[in-house]
Amino acid sequence: MASFQISDPPPNAVLAEAAEVKGTYNGLVAFTVENLTGQNLTASLSVLPAEEAERALYRFEGASVTNPTLYTVDFGPREVHTVKLAIAAPAGAAPKASSFRLRVALENGSDTDSVESRPVAFTVPALPAAPPPAKKPFPWWAVAVAAVLVIGVAGGLTYAFWPKPEVEEEEPGDQTTATPAITGTWINVNANTRSIPQIVIANDTVHVWGKCSPTNCDWGTTPLRQTRWRRPGGTTYVARPLPNRYSAFYDQGFATRTMSFRLDTTNDQLNVTTATAFKDNSGRPDRSETEQFRRQ
Predict the structure, then answer these.
(1) N or C terminus: which one in the chain shows less Cβ crowding within 10 Å?
(2) What pTM, to 2 d.p., does this model score?
(3) What is the DSSP-derived secondary structure letter of residue 10?
(4) Which residues cross the membrane (predicted)?
C-alpha cells in the first residue's frame, strides 16, 4: 500500500495568455496530497509529462529554480498538503494538445512506494500570424555596442593574465589523522532531526547512524581525515594541518555522502555539514545540510 494519496485533480487545465509575455499561455493546477500513515514522512513530488521534451513547461510553486519539476515536502502523521503546479507554454504554429500526471514517492531511495495522479489535459492555442516586418534603419547602436564589447574583452584579458596574489584554501589531506579533540559520542542537538541523530568518532574512524523508523540506520564506519592547507596551483600539501577540521566520505550505492566536521572549542560543539549526491537516477537534486552536535 502506498504511503500517500492524491485526490482527483480536474481533468482539464485552462490556459490563459500571460499579460507580461505575449504569446505565452499560463495555467495553474492544484493537487491535494495526504500522508496515509501515522508517521512523519518526506515525499518527493515530480511531473510526468506526456512528452519528455515538454518537461520545461512545468514548475512547482516553492520548488528550486534549478530543478522546478521536482519538489520535496515534509508530512506529519495524516497530514494533508495542497501542491500547486504552474504551466507556462509558448504558442506554436498550430494548436497543440498535451497532458501530464503528478507522481508522489516516499523519499528513501526506493521506487516501490509511490502513487500517480490521473492525467490532466490542456491545449496550447496557436500563435496568430505575424504581419510582414517593416524595413528597419541601419542599427548604429550596434556599432557602439561592438566598441564596448572590444573594450570589455581587452579588460578581461588584462585581468586574466595579471599576476594574482597567493591565497591559501582548504583541501582534504591524504593522511588519516584524527585527534582526541573530537573523539567521543556526539548527539544531534535537534532531537527531531530527520538526518543524523548520532555520530561516534574513535580510532581515526567515523561511525554514523541515520534517522530511520522504528530504529536508526547504521551507516557503518569510514576513515576520518584531517583537513590540511594548500596553495592554489600547488602540488604538495603544507605540513601543518588545519586545527579542529576533519572530513569523511560514505558511498551508499544510491547516494554518496561527503561530511565535514568543525569543532567549536568555545562551547565544545561539533558542526557537521553533509553534502549528498544522488546516483539512483531518481532526478532528486543534490543537497547539503549543516547540523550541530553536543558531546555525550
Answers:
(1) N
(2) 0.44
(3) P
(4) 140-162
